[in-house]
Design goal:
CATH architecture: 3-Layer(aba) Sandwich
CATH class: Alpha Beta
Number of helices: 6
Strand order of the largest sheet: 4-3-2-1-5-6-7
Largest sheet: 7 strands, parallel
Order of helices and strands: EHEHEEHEHEHEH
Number of domains: 1
Radius of gyration: 15 Å
Length: 182
């Protein structure tokens, strides 16, 4: 399957490790260079802003989807190819899922985890079958991965979580995984 559009879930803050922003910028550039449209939360701050700016500066197309209530909080990006404003967070998430061929998770906070786990739950319930890739920058998601393994070991998974969530340690590892899947 040719990948045309990727939704990226990530933080609206930069985090404490400069590698998080660097990974986002690298991903933005590589998406643009490969003709893949970026879809993301529409903000201009933190990892989100770095991702969008890098993609745009590299000549890529970027669609931001932001709910009305976050317009002030996340300072919506004014220079996007397209900015869609939704009535609610639920409408935002639905569009983020519908518009992508697959999803990528970069470091982020509770909102990022909410989006990740909703997408995985929808996968589990066969609402969609889109792959989800996690870029585990400097081991950011190690504790979560340990918890997922524990849930599997303790019999709370219907199938291995690794069938739906593909772990990559670097942006290049993600791009290589895409190449292998095509």
């Amino acid at each position: 399957m040719k990948i045309n559009t990727v939704t990226v879930f990530c933080g609206s803050k930069p985090g404490n490790d400069k590698a998080y922003v660097a990974a986002a910028e690298n991903l933005g550039v590589l998406l643009a260079q490969n003709g893949i449209t970026l879809v993301y939360g529409g903000g201009n701050k933190g990892i989100m802003g770095a991702l969008a700016n890098a993609c745009l500066q590299a000549g890529g197309k970027v669609t931001g989807i932001i709910p009305k209530l976050l317009l002030e909080w996340e300072a919506q990006h004014e220079g996007l190819t397209e900015l869609i404003v939704t009535e609610s967070m639920h409408a935002r998430k639905l569009l983020l899922y519908e518009k992508c061929d697959l999803a990528v998770i970069l470091p982020g906070g509770m909102g990022t985890l909410d989006e990740l786990f909703e997408m995985l739950t929808w996968n589990n319930l066969k609402i969609h079958n889109k792959k989800v890739y996690i870029i585990n920058v400097n081991g950011y998601y190690d504790a979560m991965i340990q918890l997922l393994d524990s849930m599997d070991t303790n019999g709370f998974m219907y199938e291995s979580w690794r069938t739906r969530l593909i772990e990559c340690n670097t942006v290049q590892g993600f791009m290589d995984a895409l190449t292998l899947k095509d």
